[in-house]
Design a protein that fits this description.
The chain is built from five helices and eight strands. It is of the alpha+beta class and about 260 residues long.
């Protein structure tokens, strides 16, 4: 064999080795990835079976309440509602009492102001001077006696300061019955044939009270107060029945100038 033939024979082996080299280069990374995947899968299975990924246990306090606990809580809520209800009722009653007391105080203050104005007009230096006058008349029904009425009159005078005004007071009544007008004198209202008037005696003012009887079936319309002084002309002053029976502030009580007279 010639020299050229021996030198060129190894060439096919080298060419085969060079062709197998690229496949060997990618085999190692693929095996590494396969090993890593198997290891990761084994690690996941181990965590699943060991319970490390399981949710944390529910604490005993967060567990569903038992029927006994629910009943106890219901009773507590009922007691709380009852307590709040009683507190609300007490507050409402206290508020009503307060409003009533305030209304009474307002009425009392209004009455006192009216009394002060009355006294100022009566005895004040700038008050109008008047002779014997019927300042007010108030009629009130008597309990248990439908035909009995109690009257209260306030008499005043400041024309003759220091002088005593004395005499007698009587009433007369006008009304309708069966469509007809009727007039009742003092003796008819007192149901006494010779009934005297109620006496009075004062310097500045006095309340005079008494009782009269209104016959059944009579509808009163007007009341007339007649004052018969010991000296001088008689004084008459009329009031409608509606004004006389209106629920108003009581007239001022009598002062040291005289005390209430009864009849």
């Amino acid at each position: 064999m010639s020299e050229e033939t021996r030198q060129s024979r190894p060439a096919p082996a080298a060419s085969a080795a060079g062709a197998a080299h690229p496949a060997h280069r990618w085999r190692l990374p693929a095996m590494a990835l396969l090993v890593a995947a198997l290891g990761f899968g084994a690690w996941g299975l181990w965590r699943s079976f060991s319970g490390q990924d399981a949710p944390p246990p529910v604490p005993a306090s967060a567990a569903a309440p038992t029927p006994r606990q629910m009943q106890a809580e219901l009773e507590q809520l009922r007691q709380r509602v009852a307590t709040l209800g009683r507190s609300d009722a007490i507050s409402r009653q206290a508020n009503r009492d307060l409003q009533s007391a305030l209304a009474e105080r307002d009425e009392e203050i209004s009455g006192l102001r009216a009394d002060v104005a009355f006294y100022e007009r009566l005895v004040g230096a700038t008050g109008q001077r008047r002779g014997l006058t019927v300042h007010t008349l108030k009629m009130q029904p008597q309990d248990g006696a439908p035909s009995a009425w109690h009257f209260t009159t306030t008499l005043t005078q400041n024309l003759n300061r220091g002088a005593v005004s004395a005499g007698r007071l009587s009433l007369a009544l006008e009304g309708t019955r069966n469509g007809k007008l009727e007039k009742l004198a003092w003796t008819d209202l007192r149901q006494q044939a010779d009934a005297p008037g109620v006496g009075y005696s004062f310097k500045y003012f006095q309340q005079v009270e008494g009782d009269v009887f209104v016959p059944a079936g009579l509808t009163p319309v007007r009341v007339t107060v007649r004052l018969t002084p010991q000296s001088g002309a008689a004084v008459e002053q009329s009031f409608t029945w509606a004004d006389a029976t209106r629920d108003a502030v009581a007239a001022p009580a009598s002062a040291e100038a005289g005390r209430p007279a009864g009849g």
